[in-house]
TrEMBL record:
This is Fungal lipase-type domain-containing protein. Transmembrane segments: none annotated. Residues 265-313 form the Fungal lipase-type domain. One of its GO terms (molecular function) is triacylglycerol lipase activity. Keywords: Hydrolase. InterPro entries: AB_hydrolase_fold, Fungal_lipase-type, OBL-like. Pfam families: Lipase_3. It comes from Artemisia annua (Sweet wormwood). One of its GO terms (biological process) is lipid metabolic process. It comes from the Eukaryota.
């Protein structure tokens, strides 16, 4: 990847790989001028008031981001190892019909080894929520159809190619077009995975789903907590596009945003638990592109999901969401908001409500099948996940496909609300 100076004038780049723990500690006490002499810190902000750069709160956020990245770098190997062992064990249980059946098969020498059948081997995402079919109550033309198909596709993007092919053809009854993985020269590995398939009942409907944050993928979590940014300009007009999240740039391998031709062919973009990826200027740039191409943009946020509240949105940093938030609480009641509640997550006012909600989600996991139907039964591993992870870090367990799949089926249809809002905005613009 090219250096920041080669494609932007303003930027902040922090690299935890190059920093020692002593370097990270120095962030709290050193001036920006001193930090710029360090290899792990690069900043050029020509249009920002220099007096604001040394404020303690801003340095604290950089410190917290770097410390979190450093921990994740250290934990990368253990996380991958633990994830691999957990997935093998869970697949061993499911392939053999549960623990007691596994014991019997072991005695009889008939143990089914899941790694020998990749078409049946599920990731931790699939084990937490094994549903592979559209809900029987949802038909083409239903306002829930596209969002339900989108989240199922997003969930499948975490699986291996053989599993995806079987799931799409045998369960969704659709045609697989391709399973893709994209190399990232910056990180020297495959970092972006996508699945593409076609609705056979409607040949014009093609779904492209990109994999999000992997539970045991430290690189993905590093991307989420990174606060680096680059300010880019439109290559045609030389006008600023805005500041873009550095982790977002690295994850996609982007240096320029120029593939606007693709927007002309899109019906809609659905995101589930998306982090902030740019500043207000970038948001306006993206919304203009979306409006110019009459593209639907639906940003779903479930309850206290931690990831949409990262990175911080305050005066020290510049990150903001673009597009309204389709926010759903833990009762699956939805509303269209400019910003989800508790937008920066770390608020003392919201500590108790978050823990109370996490406790309710554990209770709900037991009563949901009796409340909404047996198809909403949660796996034991999902309940354990809510109990352990959800109570330690409320909101982390909420960043899971299970809740977003339930939202897509049980949640309020907010698309008409957004459509009416768009019409009202167009009327206001004409009157101005």
């Amino acid at each position: 990847m090219a250096s920041a100076e080669q494609f932007c004038e303003n930027y902040l780049v922090v690299d935890a790989q190059k920093a020692s723990l002593y370097d990270i500690a120095c962030i709290l006490i050193c001036s920006t001028h001193h930090l710029n002499n360090k290899s792990f810190y690069e900043e050029l902000s020509q249009d920002v008031d220099r007096s604001s750069l040394d404020k303690f709160w801003r340095r604290w956020l950089i410190f917290a981001s770097m410390l979190a990245q450093k921990f994740l770098i250290w934990a990368k190997g253990p996380m991958a190892w633990i994830g691999s062992k957990v997935e093998i064990w869970l697949n061993l249980l499911s392939s053999n019909g549960g623990f007691f059946r596994l014991v019997i098969n072991s005695i009889q020498g008939k143990v089914v080894k899941p790694e020998e059948s990749p078409e049946n081997f599920m990731s931790i995402i699939g084990e937490l929520d094994p549903r592979l079919k559209m809900d029987a109550s949802i038909r083409k033309g239903d306002g829930r159809y596209n969002r339900s198909l989108a989240i199922l596709a997003a969930k499948l993007s975490y699986e291996n190619e053989a599993f995806v092919k079987v799931a799409i053809q045998d369960h969704l009854k659709m045609e697989i077009i391709g399973f893709y993985k994209f190399w990232n020269d910056y990180q020297n590995q495959f970092t972006t995975y996508a699945t593409m398939f076609q609705d056979t009942s409607d040949p014009n409907l093609i779904v492209v789903a990109f994999r999000g944050t992997g539970p045991f993928n430290a690189d993905d979590w590093i991307t989420d907590v990174d606060i680096s940014w680059y300010e880019l300009k439109d290559t045609k007009t030389s006008k600023p596009i805005g500041r873009i999240h550095g982790g977002f740039m690295k994850a996609l391998g982007l240096q320029k945003i120029k593939e606007t031709w693709l927007l002309k062919r899109l019906e809609g973009v659905y995101t589930f638990g998306q982090p902030r990826v740019g500043d207000e200027c970038f948001g306006k740039y993206m919304m203009k592109m979306i409006e110019d191409h009459h593209l639907g943009y639906y940003r779903y946020v479930y309850s206290n999901d931690l990831v949409p509240r990262l990175p911080y949105d305050d005066r020290a940093l510049f990150f903001k969401h673009f597009g309204p938030s389709l926010y759903f609480d833990s009762f699956y009641n939805g509303k269209v908001l400019e910003e989800e509640p508790n937008k920066n997550y770390f608020s003392l006012v919201w500590v108790m409500p978050k823990y109370i909600n996490a406790c309710w989600e554990i209770v709900r996991s037991f009563i949901l099948p009796y409340w909404k139907g047996k198809e909403y039964r949660e796996e034991h591993i999902e309940k354990l996940y809510r109990l352990v992870v959800g109570l330690v870090i409320p909101g982390l367990a909420a960043h899971g496909c299970k809740d977003y799949v339930d939202v897509s089926i049980l949640g309020t249809d907010l698309v008409p609300t957004i459509a009416n809002m768009t019409k009202d905005e167009q009327v206001l613009k004409k009157n101005e």
